[in-house]
Design brief:
The protein is built from three helices and four strands, in the order βαβααββ.
């Protein structure tokens, strides 16, 4: 089986649901609490590539940390740096299986990449 990694926020019900689904499937996975261990620029770039998304598509624009940037023209590099500096802005949970990734909202989307 390919390596499974979940970028997890334990306070998020969807993130907890994704862990529950993986446990129910009896799958071993690495849990990265990204608020404690923020991903690097290169990690975010790799996640975006695997997700097939642009930076703004995985930013939680409703978070207080994003309010100062609403309506401003930001480059993709600016947005990636913003996620590194404020990991709370990263949509969650992101589950990676091998070279594929999904934002597991709902958690059942994980089944599509297993």
């Amino acid at each position: 089986m390919k390596k499974i990694t979940i970028y997890h926020n334990p306070r998020c019900s969807k993130s907890r649901g994704a862990c529950t689904l993986l446990n129910e499937q009896k799958l071993e996975f690495e849990m990265v609490e990204y608020l404690k261990t923020p991903p690097s620029i290169s990690t975010i770039k790799n996640l975006l590539k695997m997700l097939g998304k642009k930076p703004l598509e995985i930013i939680r624009t409703g978070e207080d940390a994003f309010k100062p940037y609403k309506g401003k023209k930001l480059s993709e590099a600016d947005l990636i740096n913003l996620m590194v500096e404020n990991p709370v802005l990263i949509e969650r949970p992101i589950v990676v299986v091998g070279d594929k990734a999904v934002i597991a909202r709902p958690p059942e989307l994980i089944l599509d990449i297993l």
